[in-house]
Amino acid sequence: MTVSSNETRPAVFLDRDGTIIRDVDYCGDPAQVEVFPGAAHALRRLKANGYQLIIVTNQSGIARGYFSENDYRAVELEFLRQLGDDLIDDTYYCADLPEINSRRRKPAPGMIFEAQRDHHLDLGRSYFIGDKTSDIECGRNAGVRTILVQTGYGAREIDCRADWIARDLAHAAEFILGVNG
Description:
By secondary structure, the protein is an alpha/beta fold. It is about 35% helix and about 15% strand. It has six helices and six strands. It has helices at about 40-50, 60-65, 70-85, 110-120, 135-140, 170-180; strands at about 10-15, 50-60, 90-95, 125-130, 145-150, 165. A six-stranded parallel beta sheet has the order 3-2-1-4-5-6, with helices on both faces. α1 (about 40-50) runs parallel beside α6.
């Protein structure tokens, strides 16, 4: 679908590790990638209903020296292979360390604003789904609605001020489609 320069579309911004794939702490090995059951189906449903799907992920393991940017790209390729073709519209990652004052590293909204410009997105009709407080704060800082999934770190995140809490990505997709369907 071609989008004119004046037309905007809603998006679902997604954290990757702990939200779509099992979080293994600084995943730099494609053999460790494991997409959660039901994730691909949930994303297909969102995409079929007009949402752009944008990954927004902190990857400080690169700056820490735990893995290289090439290792990150290999993990990303395996992630996309397991997920299925043409589901993810774009991926934004930030390798900055947490102690650096970064406009891109979550909870800062820089990557969301980059995606908004690159893809003509309507943030007022968009969502951020993640498993950490930093994901929820990033979404709030960008003015999008937020959903905390209880996979990954999400089961331990309380008081993160998410708009909604979901068991997993499939449950979050059901919620979005129920609200907007």
